Model the fold of this input.
Amino acid sequence: MSEFPHLFAPLDLGFTTLKNRVLMGSMHTGLEETGDWNRVAAFYAERAMGDVGLIVTGGMAPNLEGAVLPGAAGLFDDADIKNHSIVTKRVHDAGGKIAMQILHAGRYAYSPDCVAPSAIKSPISMFTPKELDAEGIEKQISDIVTAAKRARQARYDGVEIMGSEGYFLNEFLVTRTNQRTDEWGGSYENRMRLPVEVVRRVRLAVGADFIVIYRLSLIDLVPGGSTWQEVVQLAKAVDKAGATIINSGIGWHEARIPTIATSVPRRAFAWVTKRLMNEVSIPVITSNRINMPHVAESVLAEGCADMVSMARPFLADSQFVAKAAAGNSDAIVPCIACNQACLDHTFSMKLTTCLVNPRACHETKLVYAPTKHPKNIAIVGAGPAGLSTAIIAAERGHIVALFDGASELGGQLNLAKQVPGKEEFFDLVDWYQHQVDALGITQKLGKIATADDLIDFDEVVVSTGVSPRDPQIEGQDGANVLSYIEVLRGAEVGKKVAIIGAGGIGFDVAEFLVTKHSASVDLQAWKLEWGIADPAEFRGGLSPEGPQPDKPERDVTLLQRKKQKLGKTLGKTTGWIHRAALNMKNVAMIGGVNYERISSEGLWISDGEARENPRLIAVDTVVLCAGQVPERSLADELESKGIKCHVIGGADVVAELDAKRAIDQGSRLAATL
Ligand code: NAP
Ligand code: SF4
Done:
């Protein structure tokens, strides 16, 4: 019997059957906008080959005013139908099924031409939308219906109508965004008229044997959001209007509560979907922070949903489902929910990829072909750069030896995993260890490699990483000063702390020092921390008490020399979460300082170039998080002896180094060895 009986039970939809309960959720990758439809097709076909039950594409605009941004892909004409047909054919040839998401962005559309039920600007947009008149509303319905018809012409198996996350259809539901007084506003009956009408008209247009998923916002997480009673009323109406499946939407984009970041506990919102289970006659899908087959299985086994949606895990590993089915779950590359190469890219207008899998969305460009000439390859440094190189080189057929001075694999990932909210790094390090073992890579750990150890190899890769930068502050050798490495390895730290340096590591160390128990592994504590309540009790699922975090463990001050706001260099979609989390724990953040000296009383600072306002921050411990320098001693030694090597990761360039760049560089090198 399968290890995951619920996950691998087929789902009979009457006119068609899905082979398992896994939906690959919609993601905007930017691939369609490249115009290279073979590349789009390769991306989806690889996931279909990996046996996912049903794929949902990234959101396609039904018209120009509803496009997320000017130039966003849609299904506007016959040429688009032809392009989309390339994708559906490849997915079907691979044995898969695929539905196209129709996304009308409403007031979130990044354009002065955006439209909405009322002319109310979103706090996360610079454009005030135009209020639609009755004719305008009819046009939007008709455009959505036309997009659905075209999707059928392009041989999609269905459509997903995006009705959540604060987009167009969702905006009609609540008075926060809908202050109309005509038949499309006012009472809830009127406010839900548009989504229901859209489903009804789409069903009429596409016929009975076509999947229509409605993505419904189950918990808005914004003031004035829907009540649970309204959610159920809409779900029942959407069911009656002809939807095949209801998918869960969690939180509007403008919500100030994280919903998918790594610090969100796994399956954090399955309880909300569970409430809907006996209310409708059609299958219900749950979503958000489900990233492993055993998590998905538990959600289904507990009756929280009929099906599970996972999106980013399919960037991390296209073969997720096939590996789980084959009893090989340990080989699934874990999505760590970092957003660094997916959503952060999308919001920076860059093509989506994945920190742990740089091939994602580059399937046709980055190819790991089996080697015809196996070589002996030495890799020194078992951090993310070295590990990626080792695994891909070994997969390609090379004979790999991996050296590291530490007794365990993982390098700086072993520090990151100690940070509250970064528990996913444990699984990532475990996955690396599993792959290194499974591929028979020789592990030479606990030994610093020298040039003499490396002379017999065909290729030498130096991925020795970084060392902490010496900030050269007077008094930094005092007993009250620690490096971030010492802190994250468990050194004793006083109750009052100053942190020098507010980059990613400074923020991580602050989080580590103010937190006693990580709320990311305790759903009730996490909900309390962020002020999440039951939508059946409070509108939008927001607690009237607001966030109620645990008392901070320490009194922490985070400092930097630059004048700008602290945390500006953190992830585009996650920086606000780190800042909010530290603000909730009363961490003082001071920029534009000079570090004058450290004494037994604490840290002496002054302000700006004129060194004004000299003062003492009285603390027990000062922690140095002042960045890194490349660790190049081995590379230099090899060079001096005339031994050629490839230098990658932090040992190569340290500026803006993070695991994303390290893994990308390692993977690309391994593809060419
Ligand atoms: P970083 O992001 O470069 O930050 C270094 C910090 O040290 C800055 O705040 C800098 O600010 C300060 N600094 C630099 N030179 C200094 C000096 N001589 N004296 C005193 N302060 C100095 O480096 P990091 O925090 O060590 O992180 C390393 C890498 O890991 C980064 O790429 C980071 O993005 C990544 N990382 C990311 C995350 C994440 O959440 N995504 C988490 C951890 C690490 P001033 O120059 O203004 O003082
Ligand atoms: Fe997951 Fe991070 Fe990859 Fe995005 S970049 S898919 S969040 S591991």
Notes: Residues 134-153 form the longest helix (20 residues).
